[in-house]
Amino acid sequence: MSNKIEIHKLDLHYGKFQALKAVDMPIRERSITALIGPSGCGKSTLLRCLNRMNDLIAGVKVKGRVLLDGQDIYAPGVEVPELRKRVGMVFQRPNPFPLSVYDNVAYGLRVAGLRTRARTAEIVEKSLKGAWLWENLKDRLDSPALELPLDQQQRLCIARLLAVEPEVILMDEPCSALDPIATMKVEELMMELKKDYTIVIVTHNMQQAARVSEYSGYMLLGDMVEFGLTANIFTNPADPRTQDYITGRYG
Amino acid sequence: MKLLGERGVQRLLAGIAFSAISALLLIALFIIKEGLPFIIGYGPAKFLLASDWNPQLGRFGIWPMIVASVWVTLGAMLVGAPLGVACAAYLTEFVPRRVMGVVKPTIELLAGIPSVVYGFIGVMVLAPLIRSSLGGPGLSVLAGAAILGVMILPTIISISIDSIQAVPNSYREGSLALGATRWQTTYMVTIPAAKSGIIASIILGMGRAIGETMAVIMVAGNAVKIPGSPLDSVRTLTANIALEMGYATGRHREALFATGVVLLVIIMILNSLAGMAIRKRAAKR
Between chains, do A88 and B181 touch, taking CB under 8 Å as contact? Predict the structure, then answer.
């Protein structure tokens, strides 16, 4: 399997504070890569570098390279909206728009300029099926998305993303607002999605990382302490700091 | 403070607060007491819908003034609402926070410019411009609408800014993360999400426009007739009261109070509509 994304010597400063320190990491295509580490270690910041969501924060400076299919996404002249169509994001708290279920999924298509109704309906159906929501919601496409239970809202956000056919899906603690059963459903969905998509997930929950991911990166204070196969990291970590974290002595 | 004690201070404050409210209440009651009997005596339909206003002959139909107020106010909306909302959206979504910190107080300062100054500019600049370029007397519905449209901008802008700022950032992030541009995010997500607050700002602006007197007297021409075009002179409800109050006596005076009652009712309706829009937004959160 090839690398979908390669991160080289990535530094990030918030004003004077250095949040990422020369981070190197590959992300394999069609697999799930987990970023773990204690709060404030920079894992969410790193994730947000991959679709340039950090651009929105004033005072952020990024140095280094992030290659998506070999192209540096921080190179001058990169169209950020185009990048974000290829690298989508699911957030910590489900954030469907205050629109109907249908309009939420169709949103990305409208943004992309798709105007034909039949084609939109087709993609909406396909995307809802892809997020395992079609059976639940096919009769309630007009109901407001904010009235759905939280786990359905989160899967709706995934469906909304699938509609724009991204190549990479970034997930920022996607289950932290969900109960265990809803979490399990989202995890199963992730296992299904990785057949077609490259997934990077930030999680606080180490069992979750162990359950779903093939590769893990352990971060601490802006450093990528250790990166490798999840199985290795969890059973035989090379760095004592990783050992401390996964055995629960720290964090 | 020893002199009064905690309770005394509390009572004093309550008394002051109550006096403000009661002043308001007394004004409303006084206007209604003076105006309502006239409306009933003259006949509400005749008062509201007849088109001839001729106090010397005892004819008090305010329909032309109602039409004038509606025209001028709607015109002001046409000018003020798109400008105000666009300005608010631009300031909140596209301008760095610190620029906003300078611009917003400046806009709020605009609200403090006396209306006679707006009126003066209207008379000296706008009316001659309309007269020479579009024809008509210049002092017209159009001049009134344009001046009022600018006067209500601060109301619309500052309340719209508040409601756009209150839109959760997660909506914007969600939209941007799907590849939307900032502009797409603003008009497809942020503004719709702030809709009820924006509507409230427009309704409050309308209340200001319909109640404005001085600037309108100066630029609208004050002819009592139903306007045939935006270039005709008109007299609004407020202008009618202000222009004739000085010399009105007897039935004439009562008729002016009755005009005040009509205005009071219109503004009360607008304010409660705005209140409903704001509460609807609060309930959604």
Answer: no
